[in-house]
Design goal:
This protein has 93 residues and is mostly helical. It has three helices and no strands. Helix 1 runs antiparallel to helix 2 and helix 2 runs antiparallel to helix 3. It is flat, with a radius of gyration of 14 Å.
Amino acid sequence: MRLGDMQCGNAGTHDMQATMMVGMKSRQSKQASGDIDKDFAMMMKLHHQQAVDMAAMEIAHGKLPAIKTMARRISAAQMSKIGAFVAWLAKRK
């Protein structure tokens, strides 16, 4: 489950923690392949997605423009890394 799938009512610290828990559960539910390189890429992809999800919460509900700007930059950087992992994994299927 990604952040976009969650209902964001009273977004705040509790919601940010819930987002982190969703990310942790997602990583724990993935079965290791036994190929360390593939497993690393898969887990890092999920890790970076969690950062994107947290940044999205800040962008949507944060109050400080400087932090929202940081969140936008983080999101863009993480999406680039996710893309690299997705491309690498697609070549190894």
